Amino acid sequence: MSERLFYANQLAISRTLTRIENDRSVAREIIGSLEERDYHVVGITGSPGAGKSTLTDRLALLSSKEKRTAIIAIDPSSPFTGGAFLGDRIRMKSSTKSEEIFVRSMASRGKVGGLSPSIYDAVEFLGRSGFDRVFVETVGAGQSETDIENLADVVLLVLAPGLGDDVQTMKAGIMEIGDIFAVNKMDLPGASQLATRTGAILEMSGRELPIILTNSINGQGVEELHNLIEKALGELDISGAIEEKRRRRTLYNNLNSVYQIIKEDFSENAKLEELMNYLLENRRLSDES
User: Are 175 and 205 a contacting pair, CB within 8 Å?
Assistant: First the structure.
């Protein structure tokens, strides 16, 4: 099936994503049948209640004016079916109504780090199917939710006053994955102070990264944020760093595949998650050294 047909037929995309989500071997077969192409992944993460879904909605609308755009909204898993609760998708009213944007809810399936293995395949499928921008909005589980760094080309960390983000910004795990920082709900007391404190923490860690105040409800600052994201992606392309991002994504997709196979065959092994996290962490340290 051609890229154009996939892009035009959202029902076909949805059905294929369901197959990808339910069967890893089928996923690899489907993805392997499509040609590789250039696309970008934007990860959006942060504390629950920070306004990630509404912000993602507005950013996708801006993106869709020039780029073929898709959203994967990762929701908590239902304890009964294992499927997504669809809470994020409900808050993306503009994108779900737009014929120019494809929106898919996927379940985290309790994966520590925030991303289930099938999400990597879903992103790769959408990219090969003709989408130029794939936004991935995470559940927002806090410090443990760092997998998005391995999936996305650019990570947007969304903070908001009054949600404990004053403390959250002190936690290295979540702070280290951000490429751009948005302090949302800028109309609330404490927003400017949170932005200032975040900047001070980044400066102490030797990182100079963009921090912007936004209001996802009325759109204030969102276009400027969109421009920052596009600038960051453009710099990755020019420098060639985007290739390393893609190699990293492939590596972690393969690691997740191996993990899933082992988990299915040795589900009684309580040490499995600990072992895989150890291997992933040591790979990360090896990359940095």
Answer: yes
pLDDT at 266: 63
SS3 at position 280: helix
Domain that holds residue 43: 3-241
Core vs surface per residue 121-152: b (16+ CB within 10 A) or e:
bbbbbbbbbbbbbbbbbbbbbbeebbbbbbbb
pTM above 0.70, yes or no: yes
Identity at 2, one-letter amino acid code: S
Q: Is residue 246 part of a domain?
A: no
Domain count of the fold of the chain:
1
Question: Does any domain span residue 104?
Answer: yes
- Nearest Cα neighbor of 69 from 105, 44, 98 is 98
The CATH number for 109's domain is 3.40.50.300
Tell me the C-alpha distance between 121 and 139, whole Å.
18
Mean pLDDT over 161-181 rounds to 74
Of 107, 150, 151, nearest to 17 by C-alpha is 107
Element (H, E) at 58: helix 52-63
Task: Say yes or no to pLDDT of 251 above 90.
Answer: no
Q: How is residue 242 written in tokens?
A: 């985007």
Residue 266 lies in a domain: no
Distance CA 138, CA 123 (A): 13
| pLDDT value at residue 195 | 94
